[in-house]
Design brief:
Elements lengths: L7 H13 L4 H10 L1 H14 L8 H13 L3 E2 L4 E2 L4 E2 L6 E2 L4 E2 L4 E2 L4 E3 L7 E2 L4 E2 L4 E3 L3 E2 L4 E2 L4 E2 L8 E3 L4 E4 L15
Parallel strand pairs: 1-4, 2-5, 3-6, 4-7, 5-8, 6-9, 7-10, 8-11, 9-12, 10-13, 12-14
Antiparallel strand pairs: 14-15
Helix pairs in contact: 1-3, 2-3, 3-4
């Protein structure tokens, strides 16, 4: 899992690539204006980047709070989210600042990633989390994992697993390669 700190430009490019398979200024403007998932993640990244600057942080936080309300989400921008992050639908998604999400993660709407007993999930690289899934507690979701729609995961998940159901059960080890688009190859 990539834990290193990346520049804001690098993160935005990686997120843009995950949505489109290419990066250009024209695509950036189009997605910033019309693609709700990219727009939300962009303002989340900018709010986190400028959080320690008392003067500049006001505008990014206001924009982030605006889109947080518009998309009825409760995502904390201070969470550690790796490069190549894709949210195709933002609505009703929630996670706190102590959550760690690796590179090339895809999260769709209605997902809850929450702590339990003051311990929070760690989600590794190339993970796809489907609609309405719930990930709870101080667990680790391995690399290349798929968590199916409405699955409730409260235990560690090994690499390449496909998890479905409530409670979540591993049904195969086919991994997330068929669920992910435009994987960002980071340095």
């Amino acid at each position: 899992m990539s834990v290193q700190t990346h520049s804001l430009t690098y993160l935005v490019k990686s997120d843009l690539y995950r949505h489109n398979g290419t990066v250009s200024f024209k695509i950036f403007l189009r997605d910033l204006l019309f693609r709700k998932g990219f727009k939300f993640v962009f303002w989340m990244r900018v709010a986190k980047h400028f959080d320690s600057n008392p003067i500049i942080r006001i505008l990014p936080k206001l924009m982030y709070m605006y889109y947080k309300r518009v998309y009825t989400t409760d995502v904390n921008y201070r969470a550690n989210v790796g490069p190549g992050f894709a949210m195709y639908h933002v609505f009703a998604t929630s996670w706190g600042q102590n959550v760690t999400i690796g590179s090339n993660a895809t999260i769709v709407h209605g997902v809850t990633i929450a702590g339990k007993n003051n311990q929070f999930p760690t989600i590794k690289d190339n993970v796809y989390i489907g609609t309405g899934a719930v990930v709870l507690g101080g667990i680790t979701i391995g690399n290349n994992v798929v968590i199916g729609a409405n699955a409730v995961v409260t235990k560690d998940v090994p690499d390449n697993a496909v998890v479905v159901g409530n409670p979540g059960k591993v049904i195969s080890f086919n991994g997330s390669s068929s669920s992910q688009r435009h994987i960002w190859k980071f340095d």
